[in-house]
Amino acid sequence: MVSPTVAHTIAKYLDTIRMARSVNTGRAYANGMRLFTAVLKENHLDPERTPVSALTEDAASWMADALKDFAPATEQLYLAATVRFYEYLAAERLAEINLPRLRLLLRQRTRRPGQRLPQFPRADIECVLEYVNIFTIKLSDNPEERLRALRDRAFLVTLADTGLRVHEACNLRRGDIDWNEGRAIIIGKGDKQAVVRFSTRSLLALKDYLSTRAILDGNSGRPLPSLPLFARHDKGAGKKVKPITTTTGRNIVSERVRQALGDQAEGRITPHSFRHYFVTTVLRASGNLKLAQELARHASIQVTQRYAHLSDDELDKGYHKIFENDR
Fold first, then answer.
1. Is the CB of residue 194 less than 8 Å from the CB of residue 188?
2. Contact between 106 and 79 (Cβ < 8 Å)
3. For residue 133, what is the enclosing H or E element?
């Protein structure tokens, strides 16, 4: 049996990644494999001609060396794509791969990324939430502008009070929410089913938005539970009820941050900043790391521990209370 080429095998491998993983992961792995292909060429292995059975673990160490000039996060991502490629070769019996040696080689050659504490302007997020709340009191007579204002308030409050990731919020349907229980069952990161709780203020903001959208939804000809929770309200959508995309979700955050805090604040607050806000709000109120982990749906408590730190202001107050008050 003739061994397929490296290039042909990489294409097949990426097909399996696209079927099993998200679009973003598929794109990132494809970028990683493009670099891997370039590294092979630099080391005199033509992927279009070299049979994949001739590939050894050494090529992975070349890849690790080539990634030294990349950001640590990119290095880890592209190496993950490379390791999975070698695991694919071993599983499909396309090459004799020594996986323990592969992992040892990569451990010796890769950097350990430093752990950064999540940074986000908590006070600024609260200003944005206050802004959209006041903003909706003076609503425009324009139906589309009115709907957008109510949608954006509901979207931002939902991000802040549920810890939903932006794509999870954008994918919600009306029928996903149990309004009596104040919760929803979603398919989250890693295709895992999870329960998400909604606060009273997020439910009220959603109800305000959906009641204003009632005529549009009623004329859609579709069952209400199947309709998106957050819909587009632009000329492109017309009278159809179409879900917002993650790009729209990011644009909502960007636009309202700019309006609330000025142009200089743009880029400092992202949809994920609201998730940071959610986790630290839980920790500040409860002090319960396990509770925060479960509510944030972190697979590892080590991820949650990154949020269990005090702000500089809190440290200053604690220090002065101890050393200054009684002296």
1. yes
2. yes
3. helix 122-135
Interatomic CA distance for residues 158 and 153, integer angstroms: 8
* Backbone torsions φ then ψ of 177, nearest 5 degrees: -95, 130
How far, rounded to the nearest angstrom, does the alpha carbon of residue 268 sit from its chain's CA centroid?
A: 16
pLDDT tens, 36-80? 999 999 999 999 999 999 999 999 889 988 888 777 778 888 988
Query: Are the beta carbons of 17 and 26 closer than 8 angstroms?
Result: yes
Collect all residues with Cβ–Cβ distance below 8 Å to 326 and sequence separation of at least 6. none
Nearest residue to 275 via CA among 149, 169, 148, 135: 169
CA-to-CA distance for 98 and 95, rounded, in angstroms?
A: 10
Question: Within a 10 A sphere around the Cβ of 187, how many other Cβ atoms?
Answer: 12
Q: What are the tens digits of pLDDT across the range 130-162? A: 999 888 777 767 888 889 999 999 999 999 999
Beta carbons within 10 angstroms of residue 246's beta carbon:
17
User: Rounded to the nearest 10 degrees, what angle do helices 271-286 and 289-296 cross at?
Assistant: 150
- Domains of the chain, start order: 6-109 (1.10.150), 122-312 (1.10.443.10)
